[in-house]
Amino acid sequence: MPRPEKISRHGSHDIEIQWDDGRQIVYPARALRLACPCAMCQDEMTGERIITDNALPILTYPTKIEPVGRYAIQIHWSDSHSTGIYTWEKLDALATEIGKSLPE
Amino acid sequence: MLTRDQALDALKTIVDPALESDIFSLGLIRNLEVADGHVSGELLIHRSAEASAELASKAQDALKAAGAEAAELSITTVASDGPAVDDKGGIPGVKNIIPIASGKGGVGKSTVTANLAVALQQTGARVGILDADVYGPSIPRILGATEPPTQGGRGMIPVNVHGLPMISTGFFIRKDQAVVWRGPMLAKMVDQLINQVEWGELDYLLLDLPPGTGDVQLTLCQRVALAGAVIVTTPQPVAVDIAEKAIIMFNQLKTPVVGVVENMSYYESRTTGERELIFGSGGAEILSRQWNVPVLGKIPLATTVRETADSGRPIVLEDPEAPASKAFHDAAARLIGEIQVRNAGAEKPVEINF
Fold it and tell me: In whole angstroms, how far apart are CA B112 and each of A40, B60, B297, B332?
């Protein structure tokens, strides 16, 4: 399982993750917010999305990122949402779903 | 000229007889430098100072016999830094946070925690205990703590019992009350125990967890980067099955499991010396094979272990020569090495600049 080495800002709002397997992925802020895995944004049993695109302000961006133990990060968002725990597995899957690879 | 590989080969001939493993494989060698036939490095104490001095002297002889012109192994009691040592993902001043978990209740987790702590401390390491078993805090009784902790300038000052700083959730709940709490309250308690206690400088902080894979365990794994978990089981399948759940939880939370302690491993009659396998056998080995984790030790079921725990002086203190004490010393010795190995190979904490 790859794990992030460095998490930093890309442009003004997006998140860039440097993975230990060499990938550098940019996660667009709004798409990452929409992918929030918490129980308020996603049905815990079915996985169905609860949060909708038009319920979210156009400009939604992270205000703070904190480590969670050794396995995840917690992102505080500009819409005051912060309950999502993004595990390395989740971020790895999101790399292909919403991420953009930067050339090495 | 002596090469690094030759130096390692020489070190691998120095064996801890009780652990049947050599000082290099046990992870006790640090900062090894080999240059121009000169070898220097550190040997981490894993038993008594005398035992380590003897191993170091044997190792130096072996290095010289292998062709080293000079060999100098200094002895250190200071553990290496765990995955987080600051207030970002760690507890300031605490190098290694080690949860002791079991899955199943009643396997002797607290007794193992207390005795391991004393055994670690007897090597010269600085050790503390956080009794986070909110439902059944038993560390105060096992260590014979009578006074509650006091309030310091920046937080609570742990109680000092037998030289071990200790905080227990039991101190904050009256004897005639039980903890009947929902998740958020448990999380808050864990937060306070992590953030509002003045531990001082510690090599190892052992966390006695409640049984299960619930709120307390999850909150702990989220708040701090743990060095590695110890799983306690008995040999019987019903305990092993549930210990597995604890291992799976730690795997999910990316906390390495550094080893399994098999408690109540066998009963040895005080009169005849005959061994009886009351709870069966092979539990620790099953976990070890299945999950690729070492067996740290097997602790016999003995009346004296129970009596000493109930009276407030763990057996490792009360009777260091008892078979159970020897088993605890061996387990602590192996634990020191396993933590060192994990720290040496551990991934760096993720760097966040946002």
Answer: 40, 35, 11, 10
Q: Name the residue in chain A with its Cα closest to that of B89.
A: A69
Q: What is the pTM of this model?
A: 0.88
Which residue, B181, B256, B169, B242, is CA-closest to B212?
B242
CATH code where residue B43 lies:
3.30.300.130
The CA distance from B23 to B29, in Å, is 7
Helix (H) or strand (E) holding B343: helix B323-345
Which residue is closest to A2 within chain B, CA to CA?
B347
Lookup: tokens for B335: 């634990």
Q: In this predicted structure, what is the pLDDT of residue B181?
A: 84
Is residue B61 domain-shared with residue B144, that is, in the same domain? no
Hey, what CATH class is A29-98 in?
alpha beta
Asked if B227 and B120 touch (Cβ cutoff 8 Å), the reply is no
pLDDT in tens, B93-104: 999 999 999 989
Interchain CB distance below 8 Å, B254 and A7:
no
Q: What is the pLDDT of residue B344?
A: 85
Distance, in angstroms, between B83 CA and closest chain A CA? 8
How many angstroms separate the CA atoms of B56 and B86, rounded? 32
Q: What angle do CA B113, B96, B354 make, to 5 degrees?
A: 135
Q: Which of B49, B76, B103 is the last residue of a domain?
A: B76
Q: Where are the alpha helices (DSSP H) in B224-282?
A: 237-252
In a domain, B140, yes or no: yes
Tell me if ipTM is over 0.85: yes
Given a contact cutoff of 8 angstroms between Cβ atoms, the answer to whether B230 and B99 are in contact is: yes
The rounded distance, in Å, linking the Cα atoms of A101 and A103 is 6
Pair B102, B66 in one domain: no
The residue assigned the tokens 């894979």 is B213
For residue B144, the domain's CATH number is 3.40.50.300
Query: Could A7 and B349 be called an inter-chain contact, meaning their C-beta atoms sit closer than 8 Å?
Result: no
